[in-house]
Design goal:
- The chain is 56% helix and 3% strand.
- With 291 residues, it is mainly alpha-helical.
- Strands 1-2-3 form a three-stranded antiparallel β-sheet.
- Mean pLDDT is 88; it is low at 1-5.
Length: 291
């Protein structure tokens, strides 16, 4: 007998997984979409997803926004998952065709200052953890990229890191600084990794994304940083600090692996260097009154 905690269509998720893998979706996206569809199935259980109307789906999305307080980005991911289910698997485009998408929030990234980044690194006593987070910041890596680096991806001669199958399944090269080269040598002498640069607890396995996130979270607490940040904030800090140093934004775009310059331009809105060149009108008023 099915319960609300056990969806009535277990075969659906395997079918969904196979369809997505055949289309070239990443494992991370497969898991996210499966989670979305599982939420939909549980919401309307014991009704089968095939029995749901367009109005049912609209009501469900409204429920996520108003009752569950989902962000627009999460609801849009749900719509993408539902589109795959209804259009690609069930061949029912009418079920999803008229559903509007909520507008994404235009929030700016929280930026760690250079001083905060240093405090964060100083709070890390473990060489492996410190090397990993310093590598994320020094090269502008995503957490999934750093934990999937292999020894062969580190080119100390050319001072470059080869990122394979990054977001959007794109390869790119990014910076390998002299500081990190020396750190990696010290790290290698201590840990002797064989294939993966950062190995997990089980031999032959890469370090997990969640473990890397926990390392960052613990370092934030130890460093006394109160900003709402995640390990991805080190990538934001990398881009912003480069911009503040005067690096051309098009080079930053390449290093980050952004397809569009518009994505990279968000850092102009949080750059201290850009803001420093703009004077508030209050200064002119106060100077005039004081003279």
């Amino acid at each position: 007998m099915n319960t609300p905690h056990q969806p009535p269509t277990p075969g659906l998720f395997e079918t969904l997984r196979r369809e997505m893998r055949l289309k070239g979706y990443s494992h991370k996206t497969v898991k996210a979409y499966q989670s979305c569809i599982r939420t939909l199935v549980r919401h309307y259980w014991p009704k089968h997803p095939r029995e749901l109307s367009s109005e049912d789906l609209r009501s469900f999305l409204l429920h996520l926004l108003e009752k569950e307080h989902w962000k627009a980005s999460s609801v849009n991911q749900m719509i993408n998952a539902m589109r795959l289910l209804y259009v690609d698997l069930y061949k029912l485009p009418f079920a999803i065709g008229s559903i509007p998408r909520p507008k994404k929030e235009k929030s700016l990234p929280v930026i760690l200052s250079s001083e905060e980044v240093k405090r964060l690194f100083d709070a890390l006593g473990n060489l492996k953890h410190r090397t990993m987070l310093m590598l994320v910041y020094s090269a502008g890596l995503r957490v999934g990229e750093v934990v999937h680096l292999k020894l062969a991806d580190i080119d100390s001669q050319r001072k470059m890191i080869h990122i394979r199958s990054g977001k959007g399944k794109k390869d790119r090269y990014t910076l390998l600084s002299d500081v990190i080269i020396e750190m990696l040598r010290e790290y290698w002498r201590a840990y002797k990794p064989k294939e993966w640069l950062f190995e997990g607890q089980k031999e032959g396995r890469a370090y997990s994304v969640r473990s890397a996130e926990k390392v960052f979270e613990q370092a934030v607490v130890k460093a006394g940083i109160t900003k709402q940040v995640s390990i991805h904030s080190l990538r934001h800090a990398f881009a912003t600090h480069l911009l503040e140093q005067g690096t051309d934004i098009r080079y930053i775009q390449e290093l980050l692996g952004h397809s569009s310059l518009r994505t990279t331009e968000v850092y102009t809105h949080v750059s201290k260097r850009v803001m420093a060149n703009i004077r508030s009108p209050i200064e002119q008023i106060v100077q005039k009154n004081g003279s």
